[in-house]
Amino acid sequence: MEATIEVTGLRKRFGAAPALDGMTFTVEPGQVTGFVGPNGAGKSTTMRIILGLDAADEGSATIGGRRYVTLRRPLEHMGALLDAGALQPSRSARNHLLWLAHSQGLSARRVDEVLELTGLREVSKRKAGGYSLGMRQRLGIAAALLGDPPVLMMDEPFNGMDPEGIAWMRGFLKSLAAQGRAILVSSHLMGELQDTADHLVVVGRGKVIANRPVADLIAAASGDRVQLRTPAIAEAMAALANAGAEVAATAPDALTVSHLSSERVVTALTASHIPFTEVTAHRASLEEAYMELTREAVEFQSGGAS
User: Fold this and answer.
1) Contacts by 97-101 with C-beta closer than 8 Å and gap 24+?
2) Best CA proximity match to 272, nearest among 240, 228, 230, 246
3) Strand partners, 200
4) Is 215 helix (H, G, I), strand (E, B) or coil?
5) Residue 296: what pLDDT?
6) Residue 273's closest CA among 224, 238, 227?
7) How far apart are CA 81 and CA 142, in angstroms?
8) pLDDT digit string, tens, across residues 62-100
9) CA 60 → CA 4, 7, 10, 26, 118, distances in Å?
């Protein structure tokens, strides 16, 4: 089976409210694809349609070209984590995984393998209801991995993780993608996705706003902005303005220069014999890029401080 998720033209209404309005994207093998957007953007509805938990009014969602509900032994095709709390609290973690494995014709040996992979082997006989949220996330990931699927989909897997767990999750997702799997991860934590995702699908109001590599999004948000430190502020501003830049003073010895590369800033200053101590190209964060892209798609705006 080809390791892809293909979402094509999904439309969905709940009453009079449109939840999805032509949602279209593909999750490719060999990379982690981040799935992000404001609350109400349509992420959860899209993932539920992919799993066949909701029905689309129009469009399709397939895994390797097939609808999830048509798959025999679906855990061998796609593993999913949508709700870490979806378990029987009085059942041990191992028994929770054993009944899932039994439903798919999988062995107890595979259960022990995924417990080891997710760091739960030592606590596998404890009741899952006593697990912390971070441990429940690991148990949900273990369940998603039971069938060793080529496709994985996870909703907010970093939630409840401590710093060690977050670091483990980043490395784990990257290692799974390196094996050729297609991985879709929804998260509100842009800092974690910046360090984990290769590609980003940004959505708002039920539509795809951007569908690009993370590096491209950050580069576009960074623009041609340069941070400059110089003891000759007035002279530097004049020389750079003559070179075609927009210049703004941010401190007694600091300037922000726009529309001029760092190389051209150095050339302009050197030609005018203007001293400087620092020239640094600005690199935006993924959060900055995301905020700029979704500025008009936020459904619930917070008021300013009074």
Assistant:
1) 97/139, 97/142, 97/143, 97/146, 100/75, 100/143, 100/146, 101/146
2) 240
3) 34, 212
4) helix
5) 73
6) 238
7) 9
8) 999 999 999 999 999 999 999 988 888 899 999 999 999
9) 14, 6, 6, 12, 33
